[in-house]
Automatic annotation (TrEMBL):
Residues 1-30 form the signal peptide. One of its GO terms (cellular component) is extracellular region. It is found in: Secreted. It comes from Sugiyamaella lignohabitans. GO terms for molecular function: manganese ion binding. This is Spherulin-1A. Belongs to the germin family. Pfam families: Cupin_1. Residues 71-220 form the Cupin type-1 domain. It comes from the Eukaryota.
Length: 258
């Protein structure tokens, strides 16, 4: 049975974009040329109910033949991209690349501008193994409360691993662009950006955790200033690079470009 090719790509939940703040999720738009221009939700549903792997593979192949198994990171469905001024992340996860269903694999391409930082986050269902393909990347992670913080700077073709669930951050400490690729051992790794998650808890909880250093009145401006997700430039680094930072630190500036 052929699955229906629709003019609109529907992605229910792109892993990186699966945030509390739905505004950070770019709406998919019509793109008949994308190798993934199918209703991904429908396709994955069909794959899940396929009786065996042969039927599952056939279901995937019915969507676009051989190219059903190709994901083009430089021409990905819009919903697979979280883009900001300081860089972007393109995610090949089951919702953007249905061929991943049942494979235990996913992959992200990160393109960071000078001083770009992927905000602190964790992946609840996958370890992440990254390799730097251009420039330099600094990383930090800790696996749980009580763990040390491990900090490294990687040059081209060096790698590091973030164990499943670990809190981590990746940043480009240089004035030149950088790129790295992340491989995941789950087609639906999920992404949890820590600060927006924390600040979405009830006010009394947040104020108590902050140890009284912040008043209730300050909390709303705190919340407004916090980028919801994705990639943001480190201001001090931009200064050292003589790059003019965005003067306006409005939350809307942090959202993906329209
Ligand atoms: C995609 O294809 C459909 C059906 O052929 C057509 O109606 C629609 O206009 C096309 N969209 C684009 C962006 O080309
Ligand atoms: C799709 O491909 C057609 C023909 O190659 C081209 O004219 C059109 O601009 C492409 N559309 C997009 C959205 O890439
Ligand atoms: C994609 O498929 C899902 C599940 O059948 C459906 O709810 C959704 O409306 C479809 N989206 C489009 C754009 O056809
Ligand atoms: C894939 O390509 C081969 C060689 O061109 C062709 O024989 C085969 O039918 C294609 N498979 C699908 C699912 O389109
Ligand atoms: C992602 O970043 C690269 C490198 O800066 C840029 O060339 C590309 O246009 C960006 N893509 C999107 C969708 O923002
Ligand atoms: C930035 O400008 C200062 C002052 O002009 C200069 O000393 C420094 O080398 C510049 N840094 C870079 C990375 O260009």
């Amino acid at each position: 049975m052929k699955s229906t090719l629709t003019s609109t790509l529907t992605i229910a939940v792109a892993a990186v974009a699966s945030l509390a703040n739905g505004a950070a999720v770019q709406k998919a738009s019509a793109d008949n040329n994308s190798t993934n221009a199918v209703n991904a939700t429908e396709l994955v549903e069909q794959e899940i109910i396929a009786v065996d792997q042969v039927s599952r593979i056939e279901t995937v192949a019915n969507s676009a033949g051989n190219s059903s198994f190709v994901f083009d990171f430089l021409n990905a469905p819009e919903a697979a991209v979280v883009a900001g001024d300081a860089g972007n992340i393109t995610t090949a996860v089951v919702s953007s690349f249905p061929a991943l269903e049942g494979t235990g694999a996913a992959m992200f391409l990160f393109q960071l501008g000078p001083c770009g930082m992927v905000l602190p986050h964790s992946h609840p269902r996958a370890s992440e193994f990254i390799v730097v393909t251009e420039g330099k990347i600094s990383t930090q992670f800790l696996t749980e409360t009580g763990s040390d913080v491990f900090s490294n700077t990687l040059k081209q073709y060096q790698s590091t691993i973030f164990p499943v669930g670990s809190l981590h951050v990746e940043l480009n400490p240089t004035c030149e662009p950088a790129k790295f690729i992340g491989a995941f051992d789950n087609p639906d790794p999920g992404t949890f950006f820590v600060a927006p998650g924390f600040f979405s808890l009830e006010e009394q909880v947040v104020l108590t955790q902050l140890g009284g250093a912040v008043s209730g009145a300050d909390l709303s401006s705190f919340k407004k200033a916090i980028p919801p997700a994705g990639v943001v430039a480190i201001e001090q680094c931009l200064k050292n690079c003589n790059i003019t930072a965005n003067a306006k630190r409005d939350i809307l500036d942090m959202l993906p470009a329209k």
